[in-house]
Amino acid sequence: MRLPIYFHEDDYCQIELLPAASRQFCLVEMKKIEEFSEAHRTGFGWSAMYVRNEEPPQTLASLLIPFDSWKENLKDRLSFHAQVKTGYSSHVETCDNCAAWAGENDVTIFAEINQDAIRRAWFSFDNLNEQGVPNSLAAIREIAERDELIIVDWVWREVVKISDAEKLSEYLQSRA
Predict the structure, then answer these.
(1) Residue 152 has what pLDDT?
(2) Which end of the chain is less packed: N or C, by CB atoms within 10 Å?
(3) Arithmetic mean of pLDDT, 4-13
(4) Is pLDDT above 80 for 165?
(5) pTM higher than the cut 0.85
(6) Which of 142, 99, 145 minimizes the C-alpha distance to 120?
(7) Kind of pairing, strands 41-42 and 108-114?
(8) What is the dihedral of CA 176, 67, 97, 163, to 10 degrees?
């Protein structure tokens, strides 16, 4: 039995997968975040926290991507983890309706599932290194083969079209 995989609750959807139709919404939201951050910056951090609470105009859930298609597409690239844990500090709990795919040197892909379809998906690059970039690039492109998708990195304020292999490779290399 494979051990469950873990993500810190603060990392939920911080590097997320969205339909390309939401690109402009994301760019506008990133600008709002940047302006808010500058307005609330102190010498030691920030005086307030920006909370993203508006949904993009098109969500990943709206595409009705079958969960089984990801399991099939990723089976030769990354290990499947049917159990996912989340939490903070010493508090850990099971993340219901979640699964993940990971490799030793690769991206970790998390998915939240609703009625056998992908509802949300996000990434962790904690294990990614230079050796894992080619496999991670292929894995990400495989899950996006039927839909035009983007990676939205809210932390680094980047939006990357998965169909642009060169830009995606550069982005992954910068995260390795």
Answers:
(1) 98
(2) N
(3) 94
(4) yes
(5) yes
(6) 99
(7) unpaired
(8) 30
